[in-house]
Every structure is written in C-alpha cells, then in structure tokens.
Amino acid sequence: MSATATTATTLVKKTLGWSIFLSVLMIVAGLLVIIIPLIAGIVVTIFVGWLLVFSGVMHFAYAWHTRGAGGILWGLLLGVAYSCVGIYVLLRPMHGMVSLTLALAVYLFAESILEFILAVRLRPLPGS
C-alpha cells in the first residue's frame, strides 16, 4: 500500500466519526422541525433577520471603501435598507415570518411562470 493510500485511509477514519455525528444531528433537527414547525419557522426568521443586519453592516463597510459620491450614497442606502428590514424582522419575528413566506411564494410563482414560458419557447427545438 502506498503512502498516499495510507494517508487517505487515515483521513477517512478521522472524519468518519464527525460525519456520523453530524448526520445524527441533522436527523434530530429534521424531526424537530417536523414536530414543531412554528418554532422552526421563527428560528429561521430570526436567522434571516441577523443575516440582513449583517448584510447591512457589510454594505456600510463597502460604502466606506467606495470611491465616488454615487457609490457611497448607494452603499449607504442599501446598508440602511438591509439594516432596517433586519431589525424589523428581529423585533417582530411573526410578522417577519409571514412576510418571508409571502415573498417566497411570490418568487416561486413568478419563477414557475417564467419556466413555463421558457419551456414553451424551447419546445420546437430538437432535444427538448
């Protein structure tokens, strides 16, 4: 057996325990989400709220490093928008959950219409 194969086998043995642990953790988390969907929805909404606040801070940092008045202005406006929406979602997670669900529904509906139009347009082509 070569040194590379031995190293690969050792690496697989080291990571196998973590892989099994993470798999069991994901199964337990999935079962909890199925059993308690309201709490799972609130947790995801709070997570998205923190992501929005973090994105707002990153836009402020980007605006700080941007050269030119237009870039700074748009960076600051985006930072304010992301931060305000994130703070709103964090302060009112139930309203935020409803808003995120509605936004996702509108997005998926619009995407389904566009996919249908694309399928109709591509239908005459060979291999469709």
Q: Unreliable stretches, pLDDT < 50, 5 or more residues? A: none
Element-level helix/strand string: HHHH
The multimeric state of the shown protein is single chain
Distance between the termini: 49 Å
Radius of gyration, rounded? 23 Å
> Percent range for helical residues?
over 70%
What fraction of the residues are assigned to beta strands by DSSP?
Answer: under 5%
How many strands, which pairing sense, and closed or not: the largest β-sheet?
Answer: none
Secondary structure: number of strands: 0
**SSE-based structural type:** mainly alpha
Quickly count the domains.
2
- The number of helices is 4
Averaging pLDDT over every residue, what do you get?
Answer: 87
Gross geometry: extended
Write up this protein:
- The protein is an all-alpha fold and 128 residues long.
- The protein has two domains: 1-35; 37-128.
- Helix content is 90%, strand content 0%.
- It is built from four helices and no strands.
- It has helices at residues 3-35, 37-65, 69-91, 93-122.
- The radius of gyration is 23 Å and the shape is extended.
- The model has no long low-confidence stretch (mean pLDDT 87).
Secondary structure elements and their pairing?
Elements lengths: L2 H33 L1 H29 L3 H23 L1 H30 L6
Question: Quick gist of this model?
Answer:
This protein has 128 residues and is an all-alpha fold.
Give short descriptive properties of this protein.
extended, mainly alpha, 90% helix, 128 residues
